[in-house]
Amino acid sequence: APVSPPAQHLFSDPAEIQALRRNLLAWYDKCKRDLPWRTLAATEPDADRRAYAVWVSEIMLQQTQVATVIDYYNRWMQKWPTLQALAQASLEEVNELWAGLGYYSRGKRLQEAAKKVVSELAGRMPRTAEDLQKLLPGVGRYTAGAIASISYGQATGIVDGNVIRVLCRLRCIGADSSSSAVTDCLWDMANAVVDRSRPGDFNQALMELGATVCVPKAPLCGECPVRKQCRARHRKLLGQPTPVPDVEDCGVGDCPLCPPAAEPWDSSLGVTNFPRKAAKKQPRSARTATCVLERRGCHGAPEYLIVQRPRSGLLAGLWEFPSLPVAQSLQEEKEREVLADHLQAWMGQPVAAEGLQLIGEVVHIFSHIHQTYVVYSLPLDGDVTWDSASSPSRWVTEEEFHASAVSTAMKKVL
Length: 414
Ligand code: SF4
What we know:
2 domains
């Protein structure tokens, strides 16, 4: 049966909550980074336009660093400044702009959701976190809470990686932070502490604190605006939990929020005892033989053949050099043969395995796949036609290649 978390891990003192809100917001007003989506959210009078900007930025920021996102965000908003403009875009255009940002299904789902708002919701965004999550594909609990609090002023908390770290440290939560007991507790806590009059700023402040001060490895506790409310810091300074827990409840293995009894507080880690995560699953290894077919274009510049991937699955709809997944253990000679057969079947003309020149290997890490591309090159004298019935293809110059919807991995291959 679930054990309810001991009160010492929660925020229960109203004065302490007030102090947390006050200190955090004052720090945010002074120290926040200038980011284009923040500027727009602060200056745009139309709430739906604000919501659209926050939505785009939040989807781009999932799994991606702020510094990388800024350029993509600016180009996106220039091309599709409104939801209505995005709803008119093609998947090809979305993939082209998204190329290099990774996790391509994010762009696709964003565009599908924009279409849905325009065609099924009369162009009006849902305005609460509950409706946003329920009605928009690709919008989860976190993104819904971010849009609702920042754009529509709903007093709802949000929990992302940064917030998990900050809250776990503030309340000495050391159980596996991906467990349902901890996740539920963190959402309850985020909803309890969010500032009622400035929920969007409060949520952004909590995330900003995690991104710039309460960072994973060497947090800047001395500069932290909420250090007085931080139990991990108290514990580090005093060498014992604060307040001293009831031994019946906490620290002896029964508490669903304490570090597991087998891995207790390690004083050499200090506040970085929190949070803790279960060991990550190792990505699986995969190997793909890929062939760069090259010909001389009309002005003598090289051109390359690219083909489009299926419209679903990994890297859906993106363009790549003709490729074939192969077994890890395949010998080079055999690999050359199967790749030549593959090319032959698509090109409808003989391809000699010996003509394929092995260039080298490119390794690319997707979130869950450790992918090795074995790169071959095949220079061609004349034109070839690719069987476009199953897979569209086209010849591109190097410049056109970089402007196409191709993944970072394929850029490395070229
Ligand atoms: Fe994080 Fe340190 Fe601030 Fe606590 S005092 S919230 S551990 S930066």
